[in-house]
TrEMBL record:
Top-level division of the source organism's lineage: Bacteria
Keywords, alphabetical: Membrane, Signal
Cell membrane found in the keyword field: no
Pfam families per UniProt: BamE
Start and end residues of each stretch annotated as Disordered: 142-163
Protein name: Outer membrane protein assembly factor BamE
Outer membrane protein assembly factor BamE domain ranges (all copies): 32-102
Xref: InterPro entries: BamE-like, BamE_dom
Length: 163
């Protein structure tokens, strides 16, 4: 028969291992409550009423400051894996010239697009230097001393010269 403390410690160790695998949920951005989510009326609500209900926007339009964006995202990360986005919400509120709401659009995770970056490299002039060439490349090189210059001034060799 096994000792009860052994069983207890084994059970605690198993629970600790299992709890390490549970995901960590991270909520980012604008988190609205139910009173803020009531729909805005086009032509009635103004920038002031939107600011009062929603607060400052997460982002304004890059080329059109008459559009405000309220963004939020929920991510879950399990152990050492990369976080996965579980939910994304973007509310875009556009205003007309008289600062009244012109339209409200809502976007979700399904509306996003994956951007494929170009992996090609742009060649540079010269040649690539290896790691060892970088380390040993300056051995034996003497600092350049121009005639008539003060030897006590700092140079690229690292500081004033001793006499």
């Amino acid at each position: 028969m096994q000792h009860p403390t052994f069983l207890t410690s084994t059970l605690c160790a198993c629970l600790c291992l299992l709890s390490a695998c549970t995901g960590v949920v991270d909520r980012r951005g604008f988190l609205a409550d139910e009173s803020q989510l009531a729909p805005f009326q086009a032509g009635v609500d103004t920038k002031e009423s939107v600011l009062t209900r929603m607060g400052n926007p997460s982002q304004t339009g890059t080329f059109d400051e008459q559009t405000w964006y309220y963004m939020s995202e929920i991510q879950k990360q399990t152990a050492f894996y990369r976080p996965k986005t579980k939910e994304r919400s973007i509310v875009a509120i556009s205003f007309d010239d008289s600062d009244k709401v012109a339209g409200v659009r809502k976007y979700g995770l399904a509306d996003g697009r994956v951007i494929a970056y170009d992996r090609r490299r742009t060649p540079t002039r010269g040649r690539e230097v290896t790691f060892l060439e970088q380390i040993f490349g300056s051995i034996g090189r003497a600092p350049i001393q121009l005639p008539g210059s003060d030897p006590n001034l700092p140079t690229s060799a690292g500081g004033p010269r001793r006499q």
